[in-house]
Amino acid sequence: MTQEEWEANADWLVPDFLDPVTHVVNAAIQTWVLRSGDRTILVDTGVGNHKERPYAPVWSRLDTDFLDNLARAGVQPEDVDLVVNTHLHVDHVGWNTRLEGRSWVPTFPHATYLIPKDDFDFWNPLNGHDPGRGRGNQNVFEDSVAPVYEAGQVLLWEDGHRIDRDLWLEPAPGHTPGSAVLKLDSGGDRAVFVGDLLHSPAQIVAPDANSCFCEDPAGARATRRRLLGWAADRNALLVPAHLGGHGAAEVAREGNRFAIREWAPFAPYTPAGATAEGVGA
User: Fold this and answer.
1) In the CATH scheme, what is the homologous superfamily, with its name and number, of domain 3-280?
2) Mean pLDDT on 153-178
């Protein structure tokens, strides 16, 4: 985004989404917890503990209370039925596994992990992938994806995957080759969990603005416009992975851009306990 665009929207981006002094975009790392029927579903799993991230040192060797936060939300690891990885970036798969002795084991022993096949193939180092951001995802496949696959807990999907009558996964390529969204339609209520379709709500009003992490910038722009339009036309709640402050919003068309119609009534996450917004990772 241009400096002028940031300044034009500063009155509502500051302070939750933009630091006015450092000009740093504020973002949350979090997991969404869904209940559907009698199943507990996690959408993305954050960064994880004790992991070596030589090219992302801010996330290296963490020791957070993620599992305690999850427990305060009423979920034990054994309770989880499905884990949805919207894509396989470092900050979306970390709690797929935990360290047990010297081995990485599935954190959620009874869960099926739903992983887009295109991302699984792209990030598998055996396939010689060449990501645009270099080695920022170093070690991630080996410690957070391969162990759950080798444990027989992964379902790789292509083209789309129906979870139940209310929830289904669709491809949303651009940010990564296999990026996906989770759509919900239940009793007339609609929502779409969009992962990294946007990192800041500024991208709602400036939908052609990408993060620097998008593998296919043109594809990311096209996918963002398509899904923002889907949400606006169906009055669906847009639920990104990383928004600080308000975690989700309804959007409306405004010319060739979009606008925030209404924020969801979610309280920001605090370490004191989980909220409707998500579980901090």
Assistant:
1) Ribonuclease Z/Hydroxyacylglutathione hydrolase-like (3.60.15.10)
2) 97
